[in-house]
Amino acid sequence: MHDPNTELVKHHDEDLRRYQEQGTARALQLGNRGPLRFDTIGRLDPHILNQYKTHGFYVFEGVLDDQELSELEADIQTIQKRAPASPKSTVDQNGHAALGHDLTGKNFGWVAPLSDPVGGTSKNQGRHPVKMHEPQPPSDAPDHVLQIILGSLQFSDACLRLYGHPQLLAVAEAVNGSDFTPFNEAIWLKHPHLGGSVAWHQDGTTQWDRPDFDEGTHGFNFMAQLYGSDAENGLWVVPGSHTGPADIKNMMLAAGSDRLTNAVPMICAPGDVAICNRQAVHGSFANTSSKPRVTLNFGFHRRGSVFGSIGNGIHSPATVYDSERIFERAKMIAYGISARAQHRPDEPSYTYAPLKGHTMTWEEALRPAIKDYNLLDLGI
Q: CA-CA to 76 of 20 to 30 Å: which in 149, 270, 282, 295?
């Protein structure tokens, strides 16, 4: 018997596959990818900066070596095993006290399989104005899957060491100035056949009306890829959309679906690290593929965008970001640099100018002091 619903699903899947193939081809033709390159005095290759400023993102290839990837993988697997067993649980899958059960902040975010929980809602100040397509999940799917882990530096020494990566911090300086500040850190999980979507959005919320607004006002995120990412499980970005507010509703109306016409996927191999402007229109589709994606996000701002601003209340309680608040949050950069230097003594360390003259050595005794450090996140 002919089933029209089956035909509709087949047609949707064929259209999506064609969209993914075309997007991948466009992404690889942009010219915004390659190894990290610096000149003899440590300045970032101007071609990289120009490509980043033009497109709003850039893929640094082969940044993380096999050792670092293995250490990150081990830590992230441990975090998942020790995470709450369900959204409201205080114990892990083995019945032990869950990781983060004693913290004030919300550190674990869950999503119904293949769903879009925020698109078209008022959540996150309504910055996800349209809903994504929600495929039918497998019949044996769980009620929820873990999608995001916030405040990741307190849960993983490997993540803390990655945060102190000297070349990536040098990129942060090249983009945001030597007095750059932190934003926040997170681990994004896209489980195979189950991972939910993230509706199209621009991250920035508070700085669009600044008289000195430009393409870098709301900062950027680094996105380190543990297993790589592609058109099926990865982030998609609309190149060049970071120069001002975008009308995402009209963009979707023009496209006729949630597959925005000019978007391209972020194509990364394991160990690649992308930099993505927070003002760029970006999002991801539900992961119906068999491939997992694990992305380690850590972002940075210009100090000028943060100092004196009122936080957006999305990433931490809204308050005025004064010098003391910025200083306290920036300590995590110093701890990351110190932890990495101890672990990789032969690697040159980065010198973070705002804390020069302050001795901040990472040691186990400091672990209680960084609990809930992400309540100081600088979200704008």
A: 282
* Domain layout of the chain by residue ranges: 4-303
β-pairing, 235-237 vs 282-284, is antiparallel
Q: Which value, in Å, is the radius of gyration of the alpha carbons in the chain? A: 20
Residues 1-30 have a mean pLDDT of 78
DSSP 3-state of 82? helix
**Cβ-count burial 179-200 (b if 16+ within 10 Å, e if not):** ebbbbbbbbbbbbebbbbbbbb
Question: What span, in angstroms and rounded, lies between the C-alpha atoms of 236 and 274?
Answer: 12
Which DSSP string corresponds to 227-277?
S-B-TTTSEEE-TTTTSS---HHHHHHHHTSSS-TT-EE--B-TT-EEEEE
- The H-assigned helical ranges of 30-106 are 46-55, 66-82
CATH 2.60.120.620 fits 4-303, yes or no: yes
Rounded Cα–Cα distance for residues 135 and 133 (Å): 6
Write the pLDDT tens digit of every residue in 128-137.
999 999 999 9
What's the mean pLDDT when you consider all of the chain? Answer: 96
What pTM was computed for the model?
0.95
Whether 307 and 323 have beta carbons less than 8 Å apart is answered as yes
